[in-house]
Amino acid sequence: MVNKTTSPPLWLLAELTYRCPLQCAYCSNPLEFTRYQNELDTDAWFSVLRQARAMGAAQLGFSGGEPLIRQDLEALVSEARQLGFYTNLLTSGVGLTAQRVNALAEAGLDHIQISLQAADPELAQALAGSAKAHANKLAMAKAVKAAGYPMVLNVVLHRHNIDQIGDLIALCDELGADAVELANCQYYGWAFLNRQALMPTREQLVRAEAETNRWRETLAARGRDMSLLFVVPDYFEQAPKACMGGWGSIFMTVAPDGAVLPCHSARELPMAFPNVKETSLQDIWYQSDAFNRFRGTQWMPALCQQCDDRDKDHGGCRCQAYLLTGDMNATDPVCQHSPQHGLLESLIAENSHNTPDQATLIPRNARQSKQLQGQAEIQSGLRQSGLAAPSPRQPLELIYRQ
């Protein structure tokens, strides 16, 4: 039976794999990504695409990890094209070749976005954990453009590269980019683990946004059509975002192992999510406890229920609320009216006195992931045996930092 009050999904994010050749310390993948080894095969992904399209989903993103690791990517793109999806490939560019760009174009891929780490090759190497990635990214950006795609580049900004923003924009201009997303780091997954070393100061943010505006004026004066989108980190805002347009409203993620999530960070939360191997997407979207948990306003704390913006911001981000307060039902502390808003003000103030270097970053790799799992299992075992005081489940990021 369909829940008549819920609209169908419009956006499907297909996280094809958590495998990735890079080690970015700001990755939003789960810290325990090595726990999820049993990836959906090609036929299972075909079924996911068909089910989602039948429900009404029209936008499809292929991501990861690094989706290019999947050798069936072209087959999945071809199937999506036949089903009528508009398809996006979100990639680091590592593993991409001119030949594969052409093969993906022939399969019907509509759009490619490539990520950059920095303008300076040495800094890019340090952030990505790869000596060859930066040069390959620049070459593949040009190959994407040569294949007839718009060149769309994404840069995650943080404390270690934000002061290079002028050089980053100049590099994108030189490459011939059509659109550049300057996305300040949001703190989930590995980024939350590395938050202290990644958070910029307020002064850095102000300078970076001013430099972006100067570049906008320069580009306009030259008649250069390259859009610049500057995304401020949530922590520095006064009002919460309408995360994913609202929980279970328009967006659905299918993880590599088949777990179905309202957003790609939802595995941060202390709740169970259904799997497409066992349940249809239709039933998951409309009937599952997970997807209905934070729909509407009944779940909201009184502060949010009484707010005129409750139907605009939907109570903010559940993952952010949980990571910052330990309570996924809490008002998002980004909200200036939240009783916990002072947490962010304190973090920003404390961070202005820190001078972290790149050596303090914990890389996103399999060894670190397994170590994190071990730490969490030890803590859980101690609580179950009575050797540690029982406590509410903590985010794994906080357990590791203790």
Characterize the overall form: globular
Order of helices and strands: EHEHEHEHHEHEHHHEEEHHHHHHHH
Q: What's the alpha carbon Rg, rounded to whole Å? A: 21 Å
Number of helices: 17
- Give the overall pLDDT as a whole number: 92
Biggest pleated-sheet summary: 9 strands, mixed
Helix content: 40-55%
What oligomeric state do the depicted chains represent?
A: single chain
What is the count of β-strands?
A: 9
Question: How are the strands ordered across the major sheet?
Answer: 7-6-5-4-3-2-1-8-9
Fraction in beta strands? 5-15%
N- to C-terminal separation? 46 Å
Low-confidence stretches: 389-393
Structural class: alpha/beta
Description of the molecule:
- With 402 residues, the chain is an alpha/beta fold.
- The chain is 40% helix and 11% strand.
- Strands 7-6-5-4-3-2-1-8-9 form a 9-stranded mixed beta sheet, covered by helices on one side.
- Helix 6 links the parallel strand 5 (152-157) and strand 6 (179-184).
- Helix 1 runs parallel beside helix 2 (73-83) and helix 2 (73-83) packs parallel to helix 3 (98-107).
- It is globular, with a radius of gyration of 21 Å.
- Residues 389-393 have low confidence and may be disordered.
